[in-house]
Amino acid sequence: MNRIYLIGFMGAGKSTLGRELAASMGYAFLDMDELICRQAGRPVSDIFAENGESFFRILEREILHQTILAHHTIIACGGGTPCYADNMDWMKRRGVVIWLQEEASVLAYRLSNEQAGRPLLKHDENSTLEDHIRILLSQRESIYARAHFTLSNASPDKALRLLKGNG
Ligand code: S3P
């Protein structure tokens, strides 16, 4: 297992779990959103506001392709990474892909105070954050489900057991 790609909706814990998993496996850790921001010199929300989502997706794909240079590395993807272009197939050919699956209600609870940097969480006043997440999630779930593995209520221990084949 050279590269492990963690995918899943915003708030699923890709970065937090990825860091912990990397530490316990002695792997390096990469966060795709961080790399995009570093390369672009500005936060995700500014990229969306100034250049639009399609420009962000192009940057995201470029950064994804750079992960081919990473070895023994856990990579936390952005929530939308597997859903654009051929990104999911690309990752599946070059690493192990794990979907961190969470309920919309759990995601809404976790994201309720973290909407500022996430342009896709903007929703109209007549709907709740949870309803908005439920709709986005329903559009993405069939893509996330193509991962090699699915982990619900993920923890580093659960992920380790899964990767060792005892999960
Ligand atoms: C996105 C998720 C974000 C970030 C961008 C778009 C998405 O990453 O890449 O705001 O399309 O779901 P996180 O999942 O790390 O918040």
Short description:
This protein is 50% helix and 14% strand. It has 167 residues and is of the alpha/beta class.
Explain what you see:
By secondary structure, the chain is α/β, with parallel strands linked by helices. The protein has eight helices and five strands, in the order βαβαααβαβααβα. The protein has a five-stranded parallel beta sheet with strand order 2-3-1-4-5, sandwiched between helices. It starts with a strand and ends with a helix. The mean pLDDT is 95. It binds shikimate-3-phosphate (S3P).
The counted number of beta strands is 5
Structural category: alpha/beta
H-E order = EHEHHHEHEHHEH
Which range best describes the helical content: under 10%, 10-25%, 25-40%, 40-55%, 55-70% or over 70%? 40-55%
What ligand species are in this complex? shikimate-3-phosphate
Spatial ordering of strands, largest sheet: 2-3-1-4-5
Mean residue pLDDT: 95
Instruction: Name the beta content range.
Output: 5-15%
Count of separate DSSP helical elements: 8
